[in-house]
Write a structure and sequence with these properties.
The structure holds 2 protein chains of 2 kinds.
Chain A (H helix, E strand, L loop, with lengths): L4 H28 L8 H8 L2 H17 L3 H30 L10 H18 L3
Helix pairs in contact in A: 1-3, 3-4, 4-5
Chain B lengths: L1 E2 L1 H8 L3 H8 L3 H8 L7 H11 L7 E2 L2
Antiparallel strand pairs in B: 1-2
Helix pairs in contact in B: 2-3
The chains are: A mainly alpha, B mainly alpha.
């Protein structure tokens, strides 16, 4: 069966943001290594630049839910994202307390987003198991 | 909710994929409705009724 239009748009968005992310990250790192690297607000803007395509990927997932015109598929996507969000919050909370008690090391905050994307994958398998 | 989708499809010799195409949904969605795993919204139930040329209550019934 051909890919549904909402799925095609989602795939293009994820690919576009994925490529933008790689470009922005490499670009930002290269600029920051230069002797003329910006400071102050420009440095802040440059540091935020690679985060924007990632925000775009999060947006794409919510657009997918909004654009899915097959209500059962939309129900499964909503279930998938809720499972992923719940698992991510649970793991982040447990990790946070382990950090507080000195059991594990601190991790950058954006690891939560990486975890969420991984949990989207896990959530998909759970939501679609015998669906 | 119970439904007569399987019987109605068989009477017309339609596969789940045929019905899915007419409804503009995935075959998986038709299967979920048919097996009672998912209850369709009113708009989708009306579309199903329209395709079979029957009133909704002739297709879906309370348990």
């Amino acid at each position: 069966m051909a890919m549904a239009p909402y799925m095609r748009r989602y795939t293009f968005r994820i690919l576009g943001f994925g490529l933008s992310y790689v470009g922005a990250l490499i670009g930002a790192i290269m600029v920051m290594k230069q002797p003329w690297a910006p400071t102050g607000p420009a440095a802040w803007a440059l540091a935020v630049l690679p985060a924007l395509p990632v925000v775009g990927m999060i947006w794409s997932i919510f657009r997918l839910i909004a654009e899915t015109d097959d209500e059962y598929q939309r129900f499964l996507f909503v279930k998938q994202v809720l499972i992923a969000t719940g698992l991510t919050l649970a793991i982040a909370t447990i990790w946070g307390f382990l950090e507080n008690f000195g059991m594990v090391q601190d991790v950058p905050a954006y690891h939560v987003t990486v975890l969420w994307f991984a949990m989207i994958g896990v959530g998909g398998s759970i939501a679609r198991f015998r669906a | 909710m119970k439904n007569r989708l399987k019987v109605l499809r068989a009477e017309r010799d339609w596969s789940q994929a045929d019905l899915a195409e007419r409804l503009q949904v995935s075959r998986q969605s038709v299967n979920a409705i048919e097996t009672g795993k998912y209850d369709p919204s009113l708009p989708l139930a009306f579309r199903i009724a329209e395709i079979f040329g029957l009133p909704i209550e002739a297709i879906f019934s309370k348990d």
